[in-house]
Amino acid sequence: NIIKGNKAIEGGGIAGGGTVTGNTIIANTAERGGGIYSTDNPMPISNNYILNNTASSHSGGIFADAGEITITGNVISGNSSGNKGGAIDLRVGSEGNISNNTIFNNTGSSIIYQYCFTNDTIQFKNNVIVGNSTTGSYTVLLENHPSYGHDDILFNNNNIYDNGGTYELSNQSGLGTGSLNAESNYWGTSDASAIA
């Protein structure tokens, strides 16, 4: 399917639930979730081209306001947000798996933003996050509701560099919550002194 040129308050291209796979979602506009606004649990989003969508508020590409979310194997490019999450904005209340996506040429104050309402694990794995335009300080920004803290935030085996922010990854979860495990990522350099 080609889903193109639509407008909405939430989910310019697709809003609601169900499986979203094998689509081209292009040039849609919304306040939140220019391409996709997810409210289902679980909602698999896989093997889509999510291109050139715009959100005036949060997430030009995918806004996930859901319990369990899986985002895998997508090309997410050219999306823009007036606030956080140029590519992806997660407001999850359960487990999340964001893996094997190619995320480039998106614009927002962060490119991936996650605000957690859960004590479960969220995983970012095997993603390419390169060549985006971060207008704020952090390419990937992780936060949590003060009543919750992840058992784990796993950020492993990603390529993440040249995104324009001061820092590629920031975990700003409350003290004693949201333990971050970041291993085997490529930050655009092999010089350990340059990786903060």
Question: What is the gist of this entry?
Answer:
With 196 residues, the protein is mostly beta strands. It is built from no helices and 27 strands.
Q: Would you kindly provide a written description of the structure presented here, covering whatever features stand out?
A:
- With about 200 residues, the chain is an all-beta fold.
- The protein is built from no helices and 27 strands.
- A seven-stranded parallel β-sheet has the order 1-5-9-13-17-21-25, with no helix packed on it.
Top keywords for this entry?
7-stranded parallel sheet, 196 residues, mainly beta
Topology, pairings included?
Layout: E1 2-4, E2 7-10, E3 14-16, E4 20-21, E5 24-26, E6 29-32, E7 36-38, E8 43-46, E9 49-51, E10 54-58, E11 62-64, E12 69-72, E13 75-77, E14 80-81, E15 88-90, E16 96-99, E17 102-104, E18 107-108, E19 112-116, E20 122-125, E21 128-130, E22 133-134, E23 138-144, E24 153-156, E25 159-161, E26 167-171, E27 180-183
Parallel strand pairs: 1-5, 2-6, 3-7, 4-8, 5-9, 6-10, 7-11, 8-12, 9-13, 10-14, 11-15, 12-16, 13-17, 15-19, 16-20, 17-21, 18-22, 19-23, 20-24, 21-25, 23-26, 24-27
SS strand fraction: over 45%
Low-confidence stretches: none
Number of strands: 27
What's the order of the H and E elements? Answer: EEEEEEEEEEEEEEEEEEEEEEEEEEE
* Biggest sheet overview: 7 strands, parallel
* Helix content bin: under 10%
Number of helices: 0
Radius of gyration: 15 Å
Overall 3D shape: globular
Oligomer: single chain
- Whole-Å distance between the termini? 43 Å
* Biggest β-sheet: strands ordered side by side in the sheet: 1-5-9-13-17-21-25
| Overall SS class | mainly beta
What number is the mean pLDDT? 89
